[in-house]
Amino acid sequence: MRTELESIQNWFAYNEFARLKYFETLSKLPPEELTKDRGASFPTLLDILGHSIGGVETWIDRMSALNGEKFKGYQGSDPENLQDLRKYERSVQRDVDAFFARLTSEDLDRSYLVPKLPPWWDEDFTTTIRGTLLHVIEHELQHRGELNALLWQINVDPPIVDWDEYENSRAHTPHPKS
After folding, report:
1. Cα–Cα dist 129/122, whole Å
2. Which one-letter DSSP state was computed for residue 107?
3. What is the spatial distance between Cα 21 and Cα 9, in angstroms, rounded to a whole number?
4. Is the dihedral of CA 124, 102, 97, 70 positive or negative?
5. CA dist list (Å): 141 to 1, 66, 68, 110
6. Cystine design at 159: which of 21, 80, 138, 153 (Cβ 3.0–4.6 Å)?
7. HEC per residue, 8-35
């Protein structure tokens, strides 16, 4: 039976697995499809995926600062192409891996102050590592659903990844983080 921390790590690994499938699907589209303003939460397919990855980066970086690391803040930029976004994603994933390598089950209950950050939130608030990690999982799922809808609008099948596909991939290929 998995611990709560292992389950959360598994969700992050699932999101990484699915994210790579989205890169594969998006790589088959012409560049103009990736950069067309679709009037969504963020203008383009690249922007939405970049925002989703940026959310992972920002929150992992913020929580890493609790262990004495310097808080860098958002390092991403508006992606000009899929290759640049992929490089950014790999960098963020290395930070995620390093964060989880240090995280303990006891850390999940740690709370910390999050300073206001307009336009996202207008007041300081306190949250826990657990709450933040669950938020990051949900945030990525939300934007993946948005990408699905936009891909359907242009008659592209999104890479919907169910949990069984993810688990089966892990059973047949040793996961490098295991």
Report:
1. 20
2. G
3. 19
4. positive
5. 24, 26, 30, 24
6. 21
7. HHHHHHHHHHHHHHHHHHHCCCCHHHHC
The CATH architecture assigned to 4-172 reads Up-down Bundle (1.20)
Residue with tokens 């608030």: 125
The model carries a pTM of 0.89
pLDDT tens per residue across all 178 residues of the chain: 999 999 999 999 999 999 999 999 999 999 999 999 999 999 999 999 999 999 999 999 889 888 777 666 666 667 789 999 999 999 999 999 999 999 999 999 999 988 887 777 889 899 999 999 999 999 999 999 999 999 999 999 999 888 999 999 887 665 444 4
Residues 6+ apart with CB under 8 A from 137: 8, 11, 12, 15
Three-state DSSP class for residue 128: strand
Q: Give Cα separations from 72 to 61, 63, 106, 121, 146 (angstroms).
A: 7, 11, 25, 19, 28
Provide the residue ranges of all domains of the chain, joining segments of one domain with +: 4-172
Which two three-digit tokens encode residue 104?
């303990």
Residues 6+ apart with CB under 8 A from 28: none
